[in-house]
């Protein structure tokens, strides 16, 4: 018997590990600046209790950096004959099934940081917001291939209606 989040007949394709590096960079910037400010304040004041927020923020940053790697390894997608499966999550798992015939359009996007790390995102849009799915962390070539393949499969399924 297969689990609801891991069907037995599916071969998952993982996203690029460069997604983890991009997310770690973003997290380090967001938490690193306040951490640096707190360290400067702690040094300038000389009070021992001021180091407590520094330690808490550093611990949170370390925990997030360790968590990001696991989160990225949990992301995957699988192309089946009639639909695309997208899964993500460790504690709160999610499996989105997008039927090819319900896809309206497919976007590929890459912001400045994503381009720096050589990754892109594919977003599938359907009539229902509940089945809209995004696959982050794809190599740009894979993102373009997936967009073309999904678009052609979607057109083929719509033609049969």
Question: How would you characterize this protein structure?
Answer:
It comes from Cellulomonas edaphi. Pfam families: bPH_2 (PF03703). The chain crosses the membrane at residues 21-44, 50-69. Residues 73-150 form the YdbS-like PH domain. This is PH domain-containing protein. The structure is a single chain. With 161 residues, the protein is α+β, with helices and mostly antiparallel strands. The chain folds into 2 domains: 18-71; 76-159, Pleckstrin-homology domain (PH domain)/Phosphotyrosine-binding domain (PTB) (PH-domain like). The chain is 48% helix and 24% strand. The protein is built from 4 helices and 7 strands, in the order βααββββαββα. It has helices spanning 18-45, 51-73, 112-117, 140-159, and strands at residues 13-14, 76-79, 83-88, 94-99, 103-109, 120-126, 133-138. The strands form 2 sheets. It has a 4-stranded antiparallel β-sheet. A 3-stranded antiparallel β-sheet has the order 5-6-7. The longest helix is centred in the first third of the chain and has 28 residues, at 18-45. The radius of gyration is 20 Å and the shape is elongated. The relative contact order is 0.15.
């Amino acid at each position: 018997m297969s689990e609801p989040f891991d069907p037995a007949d599916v071969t998952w394709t993982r996203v690029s590990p460069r997604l983890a590096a991009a997310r770690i960079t973003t997290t380090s910037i967001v938490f690193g600046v306040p951490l640096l400010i707190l360290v400067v304040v702690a040094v300038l004041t000389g009070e021992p209790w001021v180091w407590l927020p520094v330690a808490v923020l550093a611990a949170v940053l370390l925990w997030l950096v360790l968590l990001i790697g696991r989160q990225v390894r949990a992301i995957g997608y699988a192309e089946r004959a009639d639909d695309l499966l997208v899964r993500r999550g460790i504690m709160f798992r999610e499996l989105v099934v997008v039927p090819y015939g319900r896809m309206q359009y497919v976007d590929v996007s890459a912001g400045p940081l994503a381009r720096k790390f050589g990754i892109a995102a594919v977003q599938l849009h359907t009539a229902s917001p509940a089945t809209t799915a995004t696959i982050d962390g794809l190599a740009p070539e894979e993102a373009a291939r997936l967009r073309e393949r999904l678009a052609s499969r979607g057109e083929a399924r719509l033609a049969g209606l």
